[in-house]
Amino acid sequence: MSLHVGIVAAGPIDEIPDLSNYPKVNYWIGVDEGAKVLYEAGIQTDLVMGDFDSIDPSLIETLQQSAQSVKVFPTVKDETDLELAFLEAIHLKPDQVLIFGATGGRLDHAWMNVQLLNMFADQNINAWLVNGQNEITLKKPGKYELEKDLSFPYISFLPFSEKVENLTLQGFRYPLDQHTIVQGSSLTISNEWSEKKGTYFFTSGIILVIKSRD
């Protein structure tokens, strides 16, 4: 059976979509206050982890007892709780990872979480940061397919590295053929699918793919 991991972080609750809309997720990780979000949504949590410094102490025991497994970390550590959760997810060798509650609130944490997608890209794991308006992934050179997503009509391909070389886009309204894109250019923002499935390919650099809606 395919393994689809959902990670819920401690981001603002209004940034987290209705988790019941993701029935393919069959392994849930609650990170710090994200464990409370899963508990209140009535979703069985497979792993609760974090330093729990942002949770009311009276709730911690309840959250830990509701989970299949618990990992507690010290408040003072080199990694964020979410980075540790990413390492846990990678260890599971999943087919897909969806990360919720990781893009709102503090910009330093949000930007770091985008950078941490590198961990999944290095392992060729399909991982996305998800909020109410966007789904974001990071990819290393290669060929990838994306099925048309009616809930997210726009798709952007942005260079995460200084440049991305030989970017080819097929099956999109605005195609490209072996084009080099550089940081600061808006050429590849707000594209759309023209077919049921789109393909993108590039030979060097790191690309940020963002599906979005108004």
UniProtKB/TrEMBL annotation:
- Per the record, the domain of life is Bacteria
Single biological process term from Gene Ontology: thiamine diphosphate biosynthetic process
Q: Which GO terms describe its molecular function?
A: ATP binding; kinase activity; thiamine binding; thiamine diphosphokinase activity
User: Per the UniProt record, which EC number(s) apply here?
Assistant: 2.7.6.2
Q: Does the record carry 4Fe-4S as a key word?
A: no
UniProt cross-references to InterPro entries, sorted A to Z: Thi_PPkinase, Thiamin_PyroPKinase_B1-bd, TPK, TPK_B1-bd_sf, TPK_catalytic, TPK_catalytic_sf
Keyword terms: ATP-binding, Kinase, Nucleotide-binding, Transferase
Q: Which SUPFAM superfamilies match?
A: Thiamin pyrophosphokinase, catalytic domain, Thiamin pyrophosphokinase, substrate-binding domain
Keyword Transferase in the entry? The reply is: yes
Q: Which Gene3D superfamilies match?
A: Thiamin pyrophosphokinase, catalytic domain
Ranges for domain Thiamin pyrophosphokinase thiamin-binding come to: 142-208
List the NCBIfam families.
thi_PPkinase
Under what name is this protein listed?
Thiamine diphosphokinase
